[in-house]
């Protein structure tokens, strides 16, 4: 496991974006050779998306040969609702980049047969050759995607009922009205993310500190589903100082001591212009 | 997901621009297909489509097309001049005004003898705009049922009053109302109420102007259906604090609930003093409609030109009836008027642009397809 500790949210976002950018470019995507990227929503990845858009606008990064799979989507929320993850992805990422709409996959929370929709999503990932890099965020309760505490660590894409903690946290996006917050979602399973060749988890802010502690310093536990990635051979946690508040000094010092190694992953920042 | 292909027409994406949407300039791309504004999110997720052509606007502003509801002609063409070649004249104007941002207009006829209406009106057809020219929304007939005292540049011998027939008199004068969108009349004329009601019933916008009406007469006209004031301040009684006249409609409390009175403004720096422009704008900003009131001389060199039955003289942005100091229409283009309006009132760019787009669209009840850059509106 890598734990990359940056000063603050902006630096953590930029580091993550640089890493994604370099991964895509190193892969040398082309017609018939697509880089597959798993993507999260929420407030944490916003800064990372902004940076990726910047690289694209500067001509350094193209998503022409990138396929994306989003982690989750609410059930029953109209697609054009401003809080749907379709709207989120469109407004915060897709409309700014050159991705082919046929390559951007988001679960349809309004599908007539929800399980069939989930199965089809798994199949599409498989057909795309699996996920090269799955980027995720976590909730304060340590959930990855909508895999709430207690989710099977080998779960696949399916319908989940949201935990009260999640509903409360989301209420701010629905005028603070709990009755408007969707209570169910379609989500990739922990197993789906585990199958990715590489996983990057973004964790920022003091309110996520306990979840980070549970994720990396305690044992694998389905009550903190993100802890499952301890068993993934290539997981990289990108966090800010605040998120490390619950970690042991020893842990933080060890990984900070490795920053010069980690920074080689993002420095130099590659550009497609040079290719 | 089933992919629905709605149209094969090429999709154009305007990038690097600021667009006027929801009363604000927003840094958004504008997507257009088949002459309509496209919702790119629906295109992306439903049709899995993308742009065929991308145009870099280099940080320009994209505004909804301007709508000129009072334009007498331009580029040498006079809509009030009955010729057999009227069609090529109107085609020329509609093509030329595009470069001034006007994408639809109401060709306006000043007071003329019945024979002119009978000859010209059948040659005006309502049509959509395109690269060939601005769309035609229908004619604006300014007169002949107007006040002798406030006739302005209109020829006195052609003025008429409503006689026993009232609405029938109007029909007989104009011949046909098929392509008529706006009628300017003086509400103090006898039997004008029934005419206003009849016109309103037919979906024709009644505008008050060239009139000596007092405020209560004007309010009564609004209660009967009138919604517009023709070139505010010009050709009406000046504002008086004990009887503010037609101008008083801007702050009247007798406007029926849910209704809004609009008023045309010639914002060329000549027809209305900037201070008067500011008074009107501050009193009733949402009713302000910029009009050019342009005459044949717009786009032409200074000198003598015809307006209806009369000869006028153009000197810079000033236009007079030849040999007099009576103002007669304007030669300022719409984009000039928008700029002048913004400078004179210090209003936002958004407000200035909406006065030439959203407001005239609302006046004519066509804001669902014109006057905004909302999805599915005309591009």
TrEMBL record, chain A:
A GO molecular function held by the record: isomerase activity
Location(s) in or outside the cell: Cytoplasm
Catalytic function, reaction form: alpha-D-glucosamine 6-phosphate + H2O = beta-D-fructose 6-phosphate + NH4(+)
One Gene Ontology cellular component annotation held by this UniProt entry: cytoplasm
Name of one Pfam family that matches: Glucosamine_iso
Enzyme Commission (EC) number: 3.5.99.6
Residue ranges of every copy of the Glucosamine/galactosamine-6-phosphate isomerase domain listed in the record: 9-232
Entry keywords, A to Z: Carbohydrate metabolism, Coiled coil, Cytoplasm, Hydrolase, Isomerase
GO biological process per UniProt: carbohydrate metabolic process; glucosamine catabolic process; N-acetylglucosamine catabolic process; N-acetylneuraminate catabolic process
SUPFAM superfamilies xref list: NagB/RpiA/CoA transferase-like
Similarity comment: Belongs to the glucosamine/galactosamine-6-phosphate isomerase family.
Complexes and interactors: Homohexamer.
Protein name listed in UniProt: Glucosamine-6-phosphate isomerase
Annotated source species: Limosa lapponica baueri
Phylogenetic placement of the source organism: Eukaryota, Metazoa, Chordata, Craniata, Vertebrata
UniProtKB/TrEMBL annotation, chain B:
Binding of Zn(2+), residues: 142, 210, 231
Keyword annotations from UniProtKB, A to Z: Carbohydrate metabolism, Hydrolase, Metal-binding
Necessary cofactors: a divalent metal cation
Origin superkingdom: Eukaryota
Active site positions, chain numbering: 293
TM ranges: none
Catalytic activity: N-acetyl-D-glucosamine 6-phosphate + H2O = D-glucosamine 6-phosphate + acetate
Details of cofactor binding: Binds 1 divalent metal cation per subunit.
Domain Amidohydrolase-related intervals: 61-374
Enzyme class: hydrolase
Enzyme Commission number: 3.5.1.25
Protein name: N-acetylglucosamine-6-phosphate deacetylase
């Amino acid at each position: 496991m890598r734990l990359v500790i940056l000063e603050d949210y902006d630096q953590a976002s930029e580091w993550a974006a640089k890493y994604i950018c370099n991964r895509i470019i190193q892969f040398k995507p082309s017609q018939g050779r697509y880089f597959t990227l798993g993507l999260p929503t929420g407030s944490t990845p916003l800064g990372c998306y902004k940076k990726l858009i910047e690289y694209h606008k500067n001509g350094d990064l193209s998503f022409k040969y990138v396929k994306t799979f989003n982690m989750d989507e609410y059930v029953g929320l109209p697609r054009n609702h401003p809080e749907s993850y379709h709207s989120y992805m469109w407004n915060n990422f897709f409309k700014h980049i050159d991705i082919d709409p046929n390559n951007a996959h988001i679960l349809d929370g309004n599908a007539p047969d929800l399980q069939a929709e989930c199965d089809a999503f798994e199949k599409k990932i498989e057909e795309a050759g699996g996920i090269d890099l799955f980027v995720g965020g976590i909730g304060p309760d340590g959930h990855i995607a909508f895999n709430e505490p207690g989710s099977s660590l080998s779960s696949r894409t399916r319908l989940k009922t949201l935990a009260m903690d999640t509903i409360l946290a989301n209420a701010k996006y629905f005028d603070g009205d709990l009755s408007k917050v969707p209570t169910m979602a379609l989500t990739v399973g922990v197993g789906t993310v585990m199958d990715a060749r590489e996983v990057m988890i973004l964790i920022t802010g003091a309110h996520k500190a306990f979840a980070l502690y549970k994720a990396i310093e305690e044992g694998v536990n389905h009550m903190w589903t993100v802890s499952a990635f301890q068993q993934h051979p290539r997981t990289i946690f990108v966090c800010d100082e605040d998120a490390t508040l619950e970690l042991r000094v020893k842990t933080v010092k060890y990984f900070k001591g490795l920053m010069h190694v980690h920074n080689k992953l993002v420095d130099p920042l590659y550009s497609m212009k040079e290719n | 997901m089933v992919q629905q292909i709605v149209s094969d027409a090429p999709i154009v994406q305007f990038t690097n621009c600021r667009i006027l949407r929801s009363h604000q300039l927003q840094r958004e791309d504008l997507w257009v297909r088949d002459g309509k504004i496209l919702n790119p999110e629906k295109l992306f997720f439903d049709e899995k489509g993308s742009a065929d052509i991308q145009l870099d606007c280099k940080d320009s502003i994209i505004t909804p097309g301007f709508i000129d509801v009072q334009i007498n002609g331009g580029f040498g063409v006079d809509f009030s001049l009955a010729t057999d070649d009227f069609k090529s004249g109107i085609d020329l104007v509609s093509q030329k005004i595009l470069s001034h941002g006007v994408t639809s207009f109401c060709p306006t006829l000043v007071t003329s003898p019945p024979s002119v209406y009978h000859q010209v009106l059948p040659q005006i057809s309502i049509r959509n705009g395109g690269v060939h020219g601005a769309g035609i929304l229908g004619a604006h007939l300014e007169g002949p049922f107007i006040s002798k005292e406030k006739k302005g540049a209109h020829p006195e011998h052609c003025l008429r009053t409503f006689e026993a027939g009232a609405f029938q008199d109007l029909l007989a004068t104009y011949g046909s109302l098929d392509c008529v969108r706006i009628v300017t009349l003086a509400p103090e004329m006898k039997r004008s109420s029934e005419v206003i009601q009849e016109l309103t019933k037919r979906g024709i916008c009644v505008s008050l102007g060239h009139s000596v009406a007092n405020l209560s007469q004007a309010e009564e006209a609004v209660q009967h259906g009138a919604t517009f004031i023709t070139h505010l301040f010009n050709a009406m009684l000046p504002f008086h604090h004990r009887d503010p006249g037609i101008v008083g409609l801007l702050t009247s409390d007798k406007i029926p609930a849910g209704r809004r009175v609009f008023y045309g403004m010639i914002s060329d720096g000549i027809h209305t003093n900037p201070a008067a422009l500011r008074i009107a704008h501050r009193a009733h900003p949402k009713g302000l409609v910029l009009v050019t009131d342009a005459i044949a001389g717009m786009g032409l060199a200074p000198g003598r030109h015809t307006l209806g039955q009369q000869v006028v003289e153009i000197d810079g942005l000033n236009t007079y009836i030849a040999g007099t100091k009576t103002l007669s229409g304007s030669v300022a283009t719409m984009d000039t008027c928008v700029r002048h309006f913004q400078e004179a009132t210090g209003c936002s760019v958004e407000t200035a642009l909406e006065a030439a787009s959203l407001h005239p669209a609302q006046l004519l009840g066509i804001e669902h397809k014109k006057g905004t850059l909302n999805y599915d509106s005309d591009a």
